[in-house]
Amino acid sequence: MPDSLKRKIELLAPGGDVDAVKAAILAGADAIYCGLDRFNARSRAANISFENLRGIIRLAHEHECKIFITLNILISESELPALFGMLNKLVNSNIDGVIVQDLGLFYILSKYFKTLNVHASTQNTTHNAGQIRFLNVLGATRVNLSRELSLDEICALTKVARQSSVETEVFVHGSYCISFSGICYMSSVASGKSGNRGRCSQPCRDKYETTAVGKKYPLNLKDNSAFSNVAELHDAGVDSIKIEGRIKEFEYVHTVVNSWRKQLNGFYFYNTIGEDNNELYKVFNRDFSNGFLKGKIGREMYIDDPMSFSTKRLAEQNTYATPEEKIKGQMELYSEKEATRKRVEIELKKLNIEKIPLKITVSGKAGQGLEICLESPTDSWIVQSEIKLQEMEGEVFLHRIVIKKLKAIRDTGFAIKELNLDNLNNGISIPFNELNAMRSKILFLLNGSKELLKEVPIPVLKKPELVKEMPKLAILISSPEDVSFVEENSATVYFQIPDGLQNELNKCIALFRKHPDLIPWFPSVLIGNDFDAALEFLDVIQPKIIVSNNTGIAWAARERNVNWIAGPFLNLINSFSLIALKELFACSGAFISNELSKEQINGIKCPENFTLFYSIFHPIVLMTSRQCLFQQVSGCEKNIIDNACIPSCKKSSKITNLKNHSYQIEKLPGNYNCVYGNTHFLNTDIISDVPNMFSGFLIDFRDVKTQTLIPSNKVQLINRFNNLLKGESEAADQLHQIVFPTTLAQYKKGI
């Protein structure tokens, strides 16, 4: 018997251009996410013009479909005026929400554009309870959970979200990233095209020199598809399921959304889960896996080919007697896809996003009021002045003034198709403020009888005070053996907390009790029990200060009145992100992102009583992955990651692509797999480029091997860095002579 009382899950579809938006609506999407010309994480997509936006919103709402606008990139300081300009338009556009990554933008929206519904992007890599609470404080009403999570982890986080009246969204179909989203810098380092700016060049999909286990595409994952997991997602309490694909064309969007709509309807009304996903294989795919969702992370999730799997699967599904039959089968698939494309294209043309035509008649003469009559195909309105028109001597250009005032209609969902001024007499006038009042009344009526919000000017921030004291040197380590060595040098010492803290908790507690001056440095990713272990660590150790690269720990620090500094992997690149952390989370200081150039750093205005830091020497983390990267590179006897992998595995290898770019792959005990740049980052220029801005600089002595040669005498190295901070003229040259090769590419290119 049909069960129409089941809780409905929103089907969220991609809309990379107008046709893709129409295709999603036609196929039954409940909501569509699309980007405008700027500030979105798919710069390669055609995207939507503001001119088309109102028509798209109107069309979607006519079909009971929502429109979300993606503003999901990091915003540089120089872009803030343009951002405010866009937000001032969006706030009056009837969109259903905006999708955001940048912490400063969250703050701007919560303070100045409160009517906009705000969703946290995939790029926020939300994977623990503290992060949900952190984002809720920032004003998020929905969070897109990390793609790496299992159903059990999703269920637990959804319960936490519901306690804060926050919705959860889960990615269910399309391209997987091999790195945790938002903390991948591979494209940024390799080509200067930052994934955090929507310009990812996908170097993970590149062809590499054949690895020891015979793989040419060692970082290439199959596509995600949770097609058979609808019931589990429903039971987990998920509010929205997201299909990836804003650079895909309309026929892809229509096919995938249509398949998912049928699957959901079968579940809602007949309690059935379809197993036939053949339609999904007919459009672009790299084969499918639900490994993360099922908690079976391993070899099965890889495919050694980034191209579409459609024709290969066709060959696997059919036993062709001859090569000719195989070619015939492929041609039949192409013909079927072309027929589908043409059929959908015909239907798309029936969906109109053109602005609603208006016929406007303006009339008036001396001694009477000015009257403006507006007629659309379905409605009509009359707006009259409260002041009578007066005769004026000399030439009066009332016709021209009225036309100018009516131009404001261009920013609505209407377009003037006919303007009749025949009944408006010459030689008469009306005060400008009365015309402005009439224009406001017209815009109010055309906006569904809703007041238009006034434009918000960009706030003027105070120039930061100069740092007068010489900046201090800090050292990051990850080995207990290094503690005594660095403590002897009277430097500030940060100790890296492992990703897999649950298994290392007792050791960490013992270490920090023995060395109370150590400052905990929390990693970007702490999932499930590891996040719970981090909370226990804070409660037991009660540190005076911490550094956190994880917003969940930031929230926990605020709740426990623990002084904290924002780490470099929180991607802080504008003033408002610093203000947000200071005002909302009692943050005392922050590391500025290493993706920024000199000019971009100089533009940032530090809040009062807030300190800034910068890492000048470190191995460059390109990506952090929940996958095992060695199965495709050097080999591993295990097919699936098990409970022993994170705490005990220690491996190292290297991959080189056909562009001769090499990357170091490291797996250290207690941590996830990481890909590092081939050489360390060393920035001695920033000391003179950006003087009196930073209170401290970091050098990273963690156990990560790259091609950079580092002297075994680290005391000498520390002295060289201290000399650099003191302003000694030869210190920079001396550092580059004893530490080489290094790179400064990110600092030179900027974000």
Would you give an account of this structure?
The protein is α/β, with parallel strands linked by helices. The protein has three domains: 261 residues, Aldolase class I (TIM Barrel, Alpha-Beta Barrel); 90 residues, no CATH class; 218 residues, Aldolase class I (TIM Barrel). Helix content is 34%, strand content 20%. It contains 26 helices and 28 strands. The strands form four sheets. Strands 1-2-3-4-5-6-7-9 form an eight-stranded parallel β-barrel, surrounded by six helices. The mean pLDDT is 94.
In CATH, the homologous superfamily of the largest domain goes by the name Aldolase class I
What would you report as the Rg, rounded to the nearest angstrom? 29 Å
Q: Which structural class best describes the helix and strand composition?
A: alpha/beta
| The CATH class of the largest domain | Alpha Beta
Note the beta-strand portion. 15-25%
Helix content: 25-40%
Major sheet description: 8 strands, parallel, barrel
CATH architecture of the largest domain, by name, is: Alpha-Beta Barrel
Mean model confidence by pLDDT: 94
